[in-house]
Input
Amino acid sequence: MVDDAVVMRKLISEALSRDPAVEVVGVAASGRIALQKMTQVNPDIVTLDVEMDEMDGVATLRELRKIYPKLPVIMFSTLTSRGAATTLDALTAGATDYVTKPSNVGNVGECIDRLQSELLPKIKAHCGTILPPPAVPHSLLKPGFIRPTRIASPTVVCMGTSTGGPNALAEVFKNFLPDFALPILIVQHMPPVFTAVLAERLTALGSVKCHEGAEGQTVEAGHAYIAPGGKHMEVHRFGSKKVLHLQEDPPENSCRPAVDVLFRSAVAAYGANILAVIMTGMGQDGLRGCALIHEQGGQIIVQDKETSVVWGMPGAVAQAGFADKILPLDQISGEIIRRTFASRTSVISN
Output
């Protein structure tokens, strides 16, 4: 565990030591010290502060990756624009995951509880010590859940992702062409501030302008909209227009924003004309939404296990039998383009 703040080192150590399955084998007050200690403590995973004076987290990570290319590294970030930007830099440089430092908590106990709830599941998932995702609920597999024979042509792309998602989204967006003609609606599990920075990063990659979703925003073809951290995003139909609605109902699947909330609203707004994409992430968020899309006759692509950081979300959809295609990450953008271009050609030809 690497952090230049002694208080933070103590809080993280206390939170982790409360779980008998986790042992803190070493602490370091700087990236340089951490690199020197690596061979002595031989950790299964590293937590690394993003902002440190002597050697920041991204610089430390780059040096670490030269020696340990596959060692899981979880970045610790502040909930600020600078922290968000640096965290995304770290993910691009090879970080496995990230956690935001507790803020606005009343006491030490609450801070430790939050660290336990947010950090421990990620440590266990990336170290392979967590149990497999729960079985798909039987209610989603009942005989009445029959897919229509005719598969509809998509007029919207709906995407859901979590752990590993920023890099996965970047891989997809960089391959989109300037004439990409459908709107894209995205839920990426991220805190406030981070989603705005992610939208800027995705826009900078090329052809599709990505916005952090706003209340009442009209959904336009060729634009992407990412749900803002801390708010559910829905899409509603008003005549021929589709408009975004943000709300703060309770989390679903322990998430806000939640993929299921977006997908459920998309079915109401677009019917069967949805191409859903579920990529890397822990848990099962998106499964129930994909069940509805599948039942309506929409199309669903999921990322494969080999290229996912965590095959929870896409794995649940695949195991339920809802996926039309299970693809490695580098083939997903091509499949999206193929399916949406075919839809556009069909509409033009008619």
Q: What stands out?
A: The chain has two domains: 6-126, 138-349. Residues 329-349 form the longest helix (21 residues). Residues 345-350 have pLDDT under 50 and may be disordered. Residues 214 and 336 are 25 Å apart (CA to CA).
